[in-house]
Amino acid sequence: MQISQLVQQADVPLATVKYYIREGLLPAGRATSATRADYDENHLERLRLIRSLTVVAGLPLNRVKKILDVIDHPEGSVYEMLGTAIDALAGYLPGEDGPDRSCPRAEAALASLGSAYNASDDRMAAFAQLESALRAVEEVGMPADTERLRLYGDHLMAIARAEIEAMPTADPDAAVQYAVLGTALYEPVLAAIRRLAHQNLAVGAK
């Protein structure tokens, strides 16, 4: 297909597609002349993936690049790649410049969650992300108490366990894509269902 058809089917502006190609997020098409190139279903799928990560998951392009790199160049075990992908979804990766690495709120929260979260440590990007989130709710006068944290922790661990068990571990490439996209794209689904639950409870309380 021509680039005009690719743009139309992917619902992505031409200028954006050209930018993705320049930045290496999208492979260039197969040149057919000095000014023309052919694109195929792989380009279309890639564009839809980038669009999902940026529009649906709301990720900035620097994190999308890291996620695509994990998918394109899988290294290590499935679970090591999953860890790298999850770190890429957070605000920054371990070892990069980021917020203060002192995370007393996150440490206290994980201590209250019990043994199910023992594998978590301050090298994980999500650890600092939790610290930042807990600090934010504390600053507006809504600190997370132990009861709330345990409620969240128990239910989210059950969701995470089900997702990990469903991961296609026999195929490392498929496993990484499943883990990355499942984490990135299902977080908005969880948030939307939570809001719908709030709405229904509020209506029922009238």
Structure description:
The chain has a two-stranded antiparallel ribbon with strand order 1-2. The radius of gyration is 20 Å and the shape is elongated. The chain has 9 helices and 2 strands, in the order H-H-E-E-H-H-H-H-H-H-H. It has 206 residues and is mainly α. It folds into 2 domains: 1-56, Orthogonal Bundle (Multidrug-efflux Transporter Regulator, Chain: A, Domain 2), CATH 1.10.1660.10; 60-204, no CATH class. Helix content is 66%, strand content 2%. Strand 1 and strand 2 (37-38) form a beta hairpin. It has helices at residues 3-10, 14-23, 41-56, 61-72, 78-89, 104-113, 125-139, 146-165, 172-204; strands at residues 30-31, 37-38. The longest helix is centred in the last third of the chain and has 33 residues, at 172-204.
List the helices and strands and how they pair.
Blueprint: H1 3-10, H2 14-23, E1 30-31, E2 37-38, H3 41-56, H4 61-72, H5 78-89, H6 104-113, H7 125-139, H8 146-165, H9 172-204
Antiparallel strand pairs: 1-2
List keywords for this structure.
206 residues; mainly alpha; Multidrug-efflux Transporter Regulator, Chain: A, Domain 2; 2 strands
Describe, in short, the structure shown:
Helix content is 66%, strand content 2%.
